[in-house]
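sorry to bug you again but im stuck and you know this stuff better than me. below you get a single protein, a line of residues and a line of whole numbers that encode the local backbone shape. mainly i need to know what kind of three dimensional shape the backbone takes. anything you notice is useful, everything is just below:

***
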Amino acid sequence: MSLRDYMGQAVVATVVREASFGYFLQVEADEEDILLHFKETDQKFEIGDEVRVFVYTDSQGRVCSSTFIPKISVGTYDWVKVTDIKSGVGCFFDIGLKKDMLLGEDDLPVHEEIWPEVGDMLYSTLKVNRNNLLYVKVATDPVIESISVKATRTDYNKNIHGFIYRTAKVGSWIYTAEGFKGFIHETERGKEPRLGEKVEGRIIDVKEDGTINVSLLPRKEEAMDKDAEVILAYLHVRKGAMPYGDKSMPEDIQERFGLSKGSFKRALGKLMKEKKVYQEEGWTYLTKKEE
């Protein structure tokens, strides 16, 4: 076997000699040596000792190893965290080595604004390129499918949270804390989430195959509460009176509050029902108890 066959994997190797900066190992006799630098181990070895190491290449392209076995390897997956972002290069991940691993820009969304940020998480593995360099590879749909569990109709309308593992203009794909595989249509998200971003939402459909459709938008009653807070805040700024009511023009409402007229009327109706505001001649006023 060649060293490429070991790249990105944990192997058991034998210490064949020691230098001033580290040990040299071999997996099989007469094979090329693998460097285990002193900084890549917290153990001491003697010639002939067997040691389990992870094989990779350093920044100079040399075959190296570490006794610190990472969370992921070629062919094995786990959740790894983003540690750094470099525009035009890609994202770096902590996989458990002293050296962070790169997810190159070619494997990231075209638009950098939806690249992962530091702290985001992706279910990933490692891949080896033609130069024996290791890179992070994000899990594909079939891989996510293999670790997912099926939702049931009793899960409908439940609140969920999870990580975005794939994103596109038409929507985003999520893997939830329960292990559900889901889809968020573009109309069910306020803005396009980042790849690897943790988001919260609710289940709006359970499909026959056990996957789910998710909405990141607030429920109507939650949205109404927020919209009502916007209106109350504006009324307080205006000393308790504003020239807007349920007869106001939609474009005026949108410009002032950032709300559709329907949302504005629902929130205004809620405030009136709670006797927090009242209307007169096209104006809306705070009631005395709210001033």
In short: The chain has four helices and 18 strands. The domain at 220-290 is CATH 1.10.10.10 (Arc Repressor Mutant, subunit A). The chain has a mean pLDDT of 90. The two ends are 80 Å apart (CA to CA).
